[in-house]
Amino acid sequence: MLSILDPCGIIRVQSWDIHEAPPSKAEEMLGLLWPKPTGTVARGRVDVLCVGPTDWLVQVSDPNAVPVLQALSDAFTGSSYRATDVSSALARLQVEGAHARALLAKGCSLDLHPAAFPPDRLARTRLAGMPVVIRCTQPSSFECVVSLSYREYIISWLTDATTEFSRPVT
Fold first, then answer.
1. Cβ distance 130 to 145 under 8 Å?
2. 82 and 13 share a domain?
3. Which pLDDT score, from 0 to 100, does residue 157 have?
4. Which CATH number does the domain housing residue 153 bear?
5. Which terminus of the chain has a smaller tally of CB atoms within 10 A, N or C?
6. Are residues 82 and 96 in the same domain?
7. CA distances from 75 to 69, 112, 158 (A)
8. For the chain, what is the HEC assignment?
9. pLDDT in tens, 120-168
């Protein structure tokens, strides 16, 4: 099953120094330990997705990310970390069900076997040729974060790709 998830606030955090630890003020404010290994998620008052060695997406349940953005900007003062609200540039799609892994595997090169890609694992990849972040949220459920300009294409591609799983076997 494919669905468009409700909008949420998404803040992109980047650092120009791979060795600098995130400010403890940011961790305290968010109620979590900042994830450093690429492909991991930290959960607290928000979810922080580590999409690269110095690149994170902070998902805020409220579509208005401005209060969290301002608090992060304050916490990052004097550090190499910077935060930018990208909420209006990104969309989230959910792919779930018994065939979710097989469906996504048709369009990307990730190893989506449950042992290699368990819940709370994520990766930046290409799906149907478009850049996405795929996050496993449950054993048979995935969240895809995609540029808003590619959303309709990805929805169309996924819809078309699901037909194989809905046909009766003859």
1. no
2. yes
3. 96
4. 3.30.1360.120
5. C
6. no
7. 10, 36, 39
8. CEEECCCCEEEEEEECCCCCCCCHHHHHHHCCCCCCCCCCEEECCCEEEEEECCEEEEEECCCCCHHHHHHHHHHCCCCCEEEEECHHHEEEEEEECCCHHHHHHHHCCCCCCCCCCCCCCEEEEEECCEEEEEEEEECCEEEEEEEHHHHHHHHHHHHHHCHHHHCCCC
9. 999 999 999 999 999 999 999 999 999 999 999 999 999 999 988 876 5
> Is the whole-model pTM more than 0.85?
yes
Q: Tokens 């955090």 sit at which residue?
A: 13
Domain that holds residue 68: 8-87
**Could you report the per-residue pLDDT of 9-59, keeping only the tens digit for each?**
999 999 999 999 999 999 999 999 999 999 999 999 999 999 999 999 999
CATH assignment of the domain containing 76? 3.30.70.1520
